Amino acid sequence: MSNPRYLTKSRFKLAVECPTKLYYTGKPERYANNQADDAFLAALADGGFQVGELAKLMFPGGIEVSATGNAQALAQTAELLRQDRVTLFEAAIAHGPFLVRVDILRKNGDTVDLIEVKAKSFSSRNPHAFRAKRGGLNSGMLPYLQDVAFQRRVLELAFPGCHIRSHLMLADTEQRSSVAGLNQRFKIRRRAGDRPGVEVAKGTDAGSIGAPLLTQTCVDAYVDQILSGPLKAPGFEGPFDEVIHDWAKHYQADHRIAPAIGAQCGRCEFRAPANSTLLSGFHTCWGEVLGCDRVAIDAGTVLDLWNFRRKQELIDLGVRRLSDVHEEDIGATSSELDEVGDLGGEGLTPRQRQWMQVSGQWPGGGAFYLDRELVRREMAGWSWPLHFIDFETARVAIPFFAGQRPYGNIAFQFSHHRMERDGSVAHVGEFLSLEPGLCPNLAFVRALQASLGSEGTVFMWSPHENTTLRDLLRELEDSEPPPPDRDALCTFLRELITVKENGQIVHQGRRAMVDLCVLARRAFFHPATRGSSSIKKVLPVVMAASPFLRERYSPPIYGTPGGIPSRNFTDWSWWRPGPDGQPASPYDLLPPVFNDLPAEVLAALEVDEDQELAESGSATTAWARMQFEDSPALEREQLRQALLRYCELDTLAMV
């Protein structure tokens, strides 16, 4: 007899995103799934496995339901629940077509506490952590609350005579670690089939983890609201119980639910590249609704519109292809027309960029648009030498050192190029710390201060560097005991940062960093970037558009005596023709950071410039691997060299 196809909490979560995904999931031999390619990396980026193990230590005497198969886990759970009082980890509870594995389940007579543990950060002092100021549930917390609601409903069905109480246990950013090296007690390891697991260091118990970093909150009021109100998902809206039973029926029968295409499709993980041997669920859905083939879909849909916030509205109106969009469809809102403080509102607005992307037309014609006068006006305010910096950072749920909060910013790498008034360029500084368990922040700031000196305009690409320096400044200001050079370091950081409150600048340092991404967004448009101002999209098209860059970087002058000094390249040529005669992206000329991962996984690790914090980027993931994997010395050195090259290219790209 085949195993029943239960609607589990992970399947429920998938259906809330898009019910049609229930048909595509669990079929790796047929459908591409970009989120299932490397579960180990996902565990590194998410931190949920480690947080889960930390939570268990807060309940001494708890019993792990260790059986892996559903039938065995259900039987083991049922046997353990015969006790009047018991705490279980990963308890398996089923009723009809539903099955949940509860992170922590505490039974005391006929009262059962359901505790869902998440690596999600929250502030226990924030009165609007779960309910927004206007009364609705906080959108950022809604998926977690819906997860708990589904579990509670299954427990209520399975134990009708019990009182079920529901809780979320989250990483509390108001708490600080009271012990050093806590993170290193929970190392993620690869298991059979590339499944991630956590190895807890010997001697780790409730007494060794220090003050609690996870806060348990009763969420019954919010769950009551979800269970009593309509459950909404693309193409579905109805009573909670009716909807989940409908989903379970389709999933059990392996019947595909008709797609309801929308803005959510832009995040679909079941999307395969054109040359893939696997089916693309995304193209199947859109092809069915639009009545067209893949070529027509790949020619452009409203999902491809850069930074457009009304995609769902246009899709509902029947405007799906990019070629069907009219100028009046784009419209404009006050928040989109001007970016307060960004070049004083000069240059292209988001709406203008979006219409250029749709129409393929811009003032002056030609292959691209460049507002030379705006660029010249901005350049007139710069002072020499020019400094170009790029940071790589990580935020982890469980702190590395005493005094650090959950998800504190860890700055582990920077690169620094400098340009002199005569146009000469050199890679003059870099920093990289991969030492397991070591917080590099103080050494990072000191190295950056030594590299930048006290004069010249400093450039970043996106606000990430500004956010990082603000975090490091707060950390220094709160440090106890303070380092002997704290005052000098704080002064240095304050000179570089800009602080905004409610869209208004309230602090701007003497050398406040200039965001070149904003200048690119306001003054430059090339159709090949599809509206994006990501440096990885802008660099290749600038290389293709500039005869000067072709002439300068075709010879192997980078890292050559008498050429451009480099710390990580020797006799390197950056302008190399690709198969179509256009220059290959310089990023494609570098060896991969990870030799053991497929290309689609690497692509999933990259982030767009609109995401301020690259928590899941390649560099961050590489840093996490160095913290938790016991790699041979040669592999560690290869990864270190790859990180240095990539970060150096980021600042050369800014040059």
Describe the protein's architecture and organization.
With 655 residues, the chain is an alpha+beta fold. 36% of the residues lie in helices and 18% in strands. It contains 24 helices and 19 strands. The protein has a six-stranded mixed beta sheet with strand order 1-2-3-4-5-8, with helices on both faces. A five-stranded mixed beta sheet has the order 14-13-12-15-18, sandwiched between helices. Helix 1 (9-17) packs across helix 6 (142-158) and helix 17 runs antiparallel to helix 18. The longest helix has 22 residues, at 633-654. The protein is globular, with a radius of gyration of 27 Å. The termini are far apart. Mean pLDDT is 89; it is low at 333-341 and 596-616.
Spell out the blueprint of helices and strands.
Layout: H1 9-17, H2 21-24, H3 39-46, H4 48-57, E1 63-64, H5 70-80, E2 85-95, E3 98-108, E4 111-122, H6 142-158, E5 163-172, E6 186-190, E7 196-200, E8 214-218, H7 220-228, E9 230-233, E10 236-239, H8 240-253, H9 281-290, H10 294-298, H11 311-316, H12 327-330, H13 334-337, H14 350-359, E11 369-370, H15 372-379, E12 386-395, E13 409-419, E14 425-432, H16 441-452, E15 458-460, H17 464-478, H18 486-496, E16 498-501, E17 504-508, E18 514-515, H19 516-523, E19 524-525, H20 535-545, H21 547-553, H22 599-605, H23 618-628, H24 633-654
Parallel strand pairs: 1-2, 4-5, 12-15, 15-18
Antiparallel strand pairs: 2-3, 3-4, 5-8, 6-7, 9-10, 11-19, 12-13, 13-14, 16-17
Helix pairs in contact: 1-6, 6-7, 17-18
